[in-house]
Structures are given as structure tokens and as C-alpha cells.
Amino acid sequence: MRVREYMSKNVITVKPEQSLDEVVKLMKVSKHDGFPVVDNGNVVGMITTRDILLKKGKTAKDVMSKQVVVTFPEVKIIDAARVMFREGFSRIPVVDKETKKLVGIITNTDVIRSHIERATPDKVKKIAESLEKIYGVRTLIRTREVKLNELRPTQNKISPDEFKGREYEIKRGLAEPIIVIKTGNRLILVDGHHRALAAKKLGIEKIKAYVIALSKDIELGLEKTAKLMGLNSLDDIEGVEEEYSGVAEIIGEKK
């Protein structure tokens, strides 16, 4: 999923010379608390409610932040989301990579919408079908809550920024279910490590899951690999920082 698929193309913008009174009125009407400041199609700043309250001036260019983080239409939305959550942004302007002209804006709401829309049983069904072919077993899919302390992870590292995103969704009741394989009495976590860890941090004991139960107890290849990595519980997972090269860019000068 790319930024261009979820960004808003009809962007409300402010001109550098626009008065702060006009900007405040625009905020009231649109119910947005910030806008890109654009001059001849180029993003020259960002103005927010905070700027108006804490800085002195009469026009947008007097109080706007002149250093702006932007992203691009072809960037994966999950990568743009990581920048947003790491930096604490609620929105990022989207510009053409070549011309640097404004083409849209991506917000926290757009990011959440992109994750909700991908939460379908299709992915679960494909995993179940693969298990049946590889191991010669029957599968039964159910949706139920599982205990976090019973999960056996299969991923040893997570992105701190995606973790923040999943924590944001869980707090608002918007996170999709995790995917678990039940073989014997073991619950193998195959998808949703960030969600599971975020829920654990928030003090949640159970989480909604798609549970794929196998007709017989077999040791999955995923389990063997997890054992080699020393993974027995969610506590064994580490965080790893990620690079943002090509994902976002800072334009303008720091005021």
C-alpha cells in the first residue's frame, strides 16, 4: 500500500501572507488544527494552532515552521507512518519527488484507515491452505481472544515506530486481530507481533485473534526456527531502529 492510495488530494492550504485571523477562521470551519503553507505550489512551511498560540506575528509566514518534513506518493504507507509516529506528527505533506510541488497530505486517520481495510480473513485462509498442503493436516479457523502470556513468537525483532502505531490503534479500539496457529496445546504467533507487544505494554491480558487450529500436533518449521533464536515468549523480542532514506525529506530552513 502506497501513500498515493490513501492521501487526501484536495489539500486545504494557507498562503504565506495570509493573516492569522483568516487562518484561525479556516481552522474553525475545517476543524483542522494545521495546514501546509504553500507559495506557487511549493510547501514553504507548516502552521498549527500551537504556532499561533505561542509565537508573535500577524501573518502565516511570521509564525509558521519553516522546516517541514514531507513524504512522497510512492512511499509505502507503513514507512510514512513510522516517520509520523516517531516525530509525533499528525500529518505530513506529500510532494512530487521531482518537482517538490504539493500533491496531497497524509494524516493519522489515513494511516489507521489503511490498516483497517487490510484486515480481512483472506490472509488467514491462505495461511490455512498452505499448512494443509505442506503438513497434510486439516485446519479449523476461529476468531477468539487468546492470552498474551501463552503466545510463542516467531519474530525476534520489531520496529519501535510500528510498535507506536499499533499502540495508537489499540488505545482507540481499531487494531485488527493477530494470527495464531494452534498445534497441540501451543499457540504460535505468526502475524501481529507489534500488536501483541503493544497490548502487553498497555496492560492488556487477552487479544482478539484468528486462530488456525491443526487437526494433529506437529512441530512447525516456524517453531524450530523460533527455538534457534531463543524465542519462548513476547519478552524475548527486541526492538530495532530503521532507516528512513527515501521515505521522507526535510525541506526549508529551521526558523
Short description:
This protein has ten helices and 13 strands.
Describe the structure.
The protein has 255 residues and is of the alpha/beta class. The chain folds into two domains: 3-115, CBS-domain (Roll); 119-239, Conserved hypothetical protein from pyrococcus furiosus pfu- 392566-001, ParB domain, CATH 3.90.1530.10. It is 35% helix and 27% strand. The chain contains ten helices and 13 strands. It has helices at 3-6, 20-30, 49-54, 60-63, 77-87, 108-117, 122-135, 160-171, 193-201, 221-228; strands at residues 34-39, 42-48, 68-71, 91-95, 102-107, 139-147, 151-152, 157-158, 178-183, 186-191, 206-214, 238-239, 248-251. The strands form five sheets. The chain has a five-stranded mixed sheet, with helices on both faces. The chain has a two-stranded antiparallel sheet with strand order 1-2. Helix 5 crosses helix 8 (160-171) and helix 8 (160-171) packs across helix 9. The protein is elongated and about 70 Å long. The two termini are 34 Å apart. The mean pLDDT is 88.
Entry keywords:
single chain; 255 residues; alpha/beta; CBS-domain; Conserved hypothetical protein from pyrococcus furiosus pfu- 392566-001, ParB domain; five-stranded mixed sheet; two-stranded antiparallel sheet; 13 strands; 35% helix; elongated
The neighbouring-strand order within the major sheet is 6-11-9-10-7
* Largest sheet entry: 5 strands, mixed
Count of beta strands: 13
How many helical stretches?
10
CATH superfamily of the largest domain: Conserved hypothetical protein from pyrococcus furiosus pfu- 392566-001, ParB domain
